[in-house]
Amino acid sequence: MGTSLQSSSCAIIVTYNPDITALLELVGQLSKETDFIIVDNGTAGISSIAESINVYKQCRKIIRLEKNEGLAKALNVGINWSLRQSYEFVFLFDQDSSLCDLFVKRMIRAYGDVTRRAEADVAAVGPRIINPQTMRQTSFKLFNRLIFRSDVKFTESTSHYFADFLITSGTLLCLSNLKYIGGMKESYFIDNVDLEWCFRAKSKGYELVGTDDAILYHAIGERSSNPFVRAGIIAQHSPQRSYFSSRNRVHLYGMNYSPTGWKYRDIIRFIIKTIWLLITSPDRKEYCKNIFLGIKDAKLLV
Q1: Which of 86, 202, 247, 259 could form a disulfide linkage to 143, CB 3.0–4.6 angstroms apart?
Q2: d(CA 232, CA 242)
């Protein structure tokens, strides 16, 4: 697959009260290789930010949602716009990610490589994620394996890997597959949106592939002295975010397309994280309220 397909790609950047410096760095990198749009979730000062972004010719549109509709809804708005414009690929981005050189070219080349090798249709390709705060890289996981679960080489490849899950930011989606897989689950609002979509895609027979050919620098969660966070076992978010992460993961436990191996491991991880927060966090009351409310509300999700 030739790199001329860069002209058939569009990057979707979802923003909400962004760090303007980080955002401008990201759009500056993307503008060298691909069209992009911004979907903003109700940022109060978006008009002044838009002035700085509209100078880039590759900026095709800034879509302004009146309020914070959540990550999943914003992604779907961008995906649906890209479908109407007849793009072949979209790249999904958080507002605070940073890219290696020639990121788009490398990702599209990786997609072409894996589609030639794959036995099933490839729904998405994800870059290697490196946390810029710790320089720790995230491995590509297969959840239903007991051993040798990380970075399992893709068929006859030295730089691509089988995956059951790809982090939203940086992921390339082939839009033609979405009519079979569907879009992002909007009721999830923010957390585990990528997990649910990936599990659904895999359950429908599609492949997910991670690659070392492109690198995205992205910090997951917030800084913490928690040894489990520093080791990359769990991510830490605010008490308010813990409501969504708790609610959505409990809902995912009940989905028949969620991998059994992930359910067992995540339940253990969830228990450890909850106990740690309730024992050590100065915000333990807020965490307790939000976590248990999220667990209770999981049954209300559709």
Answers
A1: 259
A2: 17
- Give the span between the Cα atoms of 198 and 192, in whole angstroms: 10
Alpha-carbon torsion angle 190, 194, 200, 201, nearest 10: 150
β-pairing verdict for 137-138 and 122-130: antiparallel
Question: Which residue(s) pair with 14 in the sheet?
Answer: 39
- Look at the pTM and tell me if it is higher than 0.85: yes
Q: What is the DSSP letter of 139?
A: P
Within 8 A by CB and 6+ apart from 228, the residues are 234, 272, 273, 276
In Å, how far are 89, 264, 266 from 254, measured between CA atoms? 31, 12, 13
Rounded distance between C-alpha atoms, residue 289 and residue 201, angstroms: 33
- How many angstroms from the chain centroid is the CA of residue 208? 13
| Cβ–Cβ under 8 Å, residues 173 and 123 | yes
Q: What is the pLDDT of residues 205-257, one digit of tens each?
A: 999 999 999 999 988 755 555 565 555 555 667 899 999 999 999 999 999 99
> What kind and span of H or E run contains 37?
strand 35-41
Q: How far apart are CA 154 and CA 65, in angstroms?
A: 39
| 230 residue type, one letter | R
The full DSSP string for 193-232 is HHHHHHHHHHHTT-EEEEEEEEEEE---S-----HHHHTT
The count of residues in the chain is: 302
pLDDT (tens digit, 9 = 90+) per residue, 39-60?
A: 999 999 899 999 999 999 999 9
Distance in angstroms (rounded) separating the CA atoms of residues 252 and 235: 18
Question: Rounded CA gap, 206 and 126, in Å?
Answer: 14
| Angstrom distance (rounded) from CA 38 to CA 106 | 22
DSSP state of 188: G
Contact 120, 208 (CB under 8 A): no
What single-letter amino acid sits at 107?
A: M
Q: Over the Cα atoms of the chain, what is R_g?
A: 19
